[in-house]
Specification:
Helices cover 14% and strands 41% of the residues. By secondary structure, it is mostly beta strands.
Length: 235
């Protein structure tokens, strides 16, 4: 039976039998195995939220990071800046249980930093890939905690490589960086950029461009090969 739809949809007919079939089909269908989802699930196990407090400046802020092994957590350098009088750092992998952490190193020329957290040893670690092997168009996922919203994942692609702001860069960290088209949300600094092979190829620095102050511009990433250098200095 075909039922006519009156009013403004005059002339349009809806086959209710077909609709019923579509509903039943959707109810019985199974989710397609998605490799990108699998990588995100892998990354979530090692992703953490970082909460920093400074008593002297009476301020507090948050960032993102990931466990790189042996209790070492990688984050953005500006999450744990050298000139900040940091009083306390707490890390959470589930936004329920919090672990104390200590700053180990922060390099403004890479915009990468490392903190040590004994509690992080309970969680899986991720390995860093070779960022020089990336190509434009590669699929990536960005996992972090924008403004403390833990375990937030965004999917995108590598949009450009070896980019820089030249002599006008606020620091050397903004030269030889990666651009991604993922819509990185404010407060995601230090979040991982993970490839479909499960390796981390960089961390979120922020947004650069004429309208970066309102979050519009190129989403910038510090390459993993830079991060490897700072880890090598510690290990």
């Amino acid at each position: 039976m075909i039922k006519k739809v009156p009013g403004e949809f005059r002339g349009f007919s809806l086959d209710l039998n077909l609709v019923d079939l579509l509903i039943k089909t959707s109810q019985n269908s199974e989710k397609i195995d998605d490799p990108v989802k699998q990588v995100i699930q892998l990354g979530l196990q090692s992703s953490c939220s970082i909460y920093v407090r400074s008593d002297s400046s009476k301020s507090q802020w948050s960032g993102s990071g990931f466990h790189a092994g042996n209790g070492l957590i990688v984050t953005a350098g500006h999450v744990i800046p050298l000139d900040a009088d940091i009083s306390e750092i707490n890390v959470s992998f589930d936004n329920k249980q919090f672990y104390p952490a200590n700053p180990i190193k922060s390099d403004p020329n890479i915009d990468a930093g490392v903190i040590y957290c004994e509690g992080a040893k309970r969680f899986p670690d991720l390995k860093l890939g070779d960022s020089d092997t990336l190509e434009k168009g590669d699929i990536i996922a960005v996992i972090g905690a924008p403004e403390g919203f833990h375990d937030t994942a965004i999917v995108g692609r590598i949009s450009n490589l070896h980019q820089g702001l030249g002599q006008g860069a606020p620091s050397q960290a903004w030269n030889d960086i990666i651009f991604v088209d993922a819509d990185i949300m404010e407060g995601s600094s230090g979040g991982m950029v993970i490839g479909t092979d499960g390796l981390v190829y960089g961390l979120v620095m922020g947004v650069t461009g004429q309208h970066a102050d309102v979050g519009i511009g190129e989403s910038s990433v510090s390459p993993s090969n830079k991060i490897k250098k700072i880890l090598a200095e510690i290990v």
